[in-house]
Amino acid sequence: MTETETNAYDVVVIGAGPVGENVADRTRAAGLSTAIVESELVGGECSYWACMPSKALLRPVIARADALRLPGVREAVQTPLDAPAVLGRRDEFTSHWKDDGQVGWVEGIGADLYRGKGRLAGPRTVEVTGPDGGRRLLTARHAVAVATGSRAALPDLPGLADVNPWTSREATSAKDVPGRLIVVGGGVVAVEMATAWQAFGARVTMLVRGKGLLARMEPFAGELVAEALTEAGADIRTGTSVESVTRENGTVVAVTDAGDRIEADEILFATGRAPRTDDIGLETVGLEPGSWLPVDDSLRVTGHDWLYAVGDVNHRALLTHQGKYQARIAGAAIAARASGVPILESDPWGAHAATADHAAVPQVVFADPEAASVGLSLAEAEQAGHRVRAVDVDLSTVAGASLYGDGYKGRARMVVDLEDEIVRGVTFVGPGVGELIHSATIAVAGQVPLSRLWHAVPSYPTISEAWLRLLEAYRDS
Q1: Residues in domain FAD/NAD(P)-binding (predicted)?
Q2: Exposed (0-12), middle (13-18) or buried (19+): which is 29, by Cβ within 10 Å?
Q3: Given 3.50.50.60, 3.40.50.2300, 3.40.50.20, 1.10.10.650, which CATH number is that of 6-43+99-151+275-356?
């Protein structure tokens, strides 16, 4: 390998996480030659440090919580979770942090994989520095797609690096259960990891700067989740900021803005994400290093007809499933433009437009209880200028909820546009509600009129009867 060696492709993808893999899959399916570059593990954040390991940790927690609500079963699960067994299963889900299977998949679709650091080196050019220091230039006839994702954003606290804090990566890959864990933040990562490690035996203290948990959902979602976490033993302190963190003789000491001194074995900062764009050569094409990349609905970077930014890096919806959705859109758009097929910019729901990122983004928080939402909250709909009404239902009144056992607590909200009588947003909170959210996503993305939803009959007795109760509440209010 020499510094001047150059290989030409139709498409070059920087980043081989699930988003980059899907871009490569779609462009290869369209007959375009494609190279994909990865500096870490093929499969990316989701496979090794986010979606898969976190859900592998949480599934036993939620299964046990469900069992404890059921007479005849709760007696069999009174003992604590077997944390080493759960961690071992987590390791299986991550393939023990080896990417052989993912590499085989990339090879199977006919894309060329380059191991190393990929950086833009001018228009349509990517320089790859391999593990051995050798360099190679990849040129793209049609498109370069940046799919480098995001990383945990840490606050600017003096000496924080000396504390060796956990981020989402350490929280999902830790080998042992800490006796005491401080969780800084109140979003999805904070809630899910507090749920998991509390269940494994850690004493969890959550320090939340805002008024409550899950601030981007309807307020009752965070309230019900906080209530359950508190009942499980977590100490949740809202309206609290961390002023300093030190590690003294192995013990983490966090001092809050109220002057409280909290000691723990580990501290997790789940305080937001930052784009992985600080060292990918953006300056060589007139873009700001370290910035989120603005895109149009075909995922093309503003002002660059050959450059695409897909997934977290464009800051539209920092969720793996949305990134994969964007990848399908971007792949179709790249292929269409490469073949000279005109893209109809006026078709908002066409094959080349990522419209759902504006209107119908679903998300599930795998806590106990689960929280799931899609579309706009009531506050967001009102702020957007829609004339709406929200209707709420206590999910414990739905027949299917009773099958989940004693003391079911849950709530559903549907936000209805009064002008068009379509659903703008839906939120569910309660055990088992994660499986309800796709029906809500179809209703929101499809702009299904309420008059039609009346004829979508939910099976009895399932929690899906929540839809009937919501429609009745709207009709009768």
Answers
A1: 9-321
A2: middle
A3: 3.50.50.60
Given CA atoms 437, 314, 336, 43 in this order, what sign does their dihedral have?
Answer: negative
User: Dihedral angle at the C-alpha atoms of 273, 278, 279, 283, nearest 10 degrees?
Assistant: 150
CA atoms within a 13 Å half-sphere pointing along the CA-CB vector of 60: 21
CATH ID of 160-272, from 1.10.8.60, 3.50.50.60, 3.40.30.110, 1.10.150.450: 3.50.50.60
- Whole-angstrom distance, CA of residue 244 vs CA of residue 327: 40
Report whether pLDDT(39) > 70.
yes
Tokens (6 digits) for 135 = 């360099």
Q: How many residues does the chain have?
A: 477
Q: pTM (2 decimals)?
A: 0.95
> What contacts 44, CB < 8 A, 6 or more positions away?
15, 16, 17, 18, 19, 20, 21, 38, 149
pLDDT in tens, 207-230: 999 999 999 999 999 999 999 999
The Cα 217–Cα 379 span in angstroms is: 10
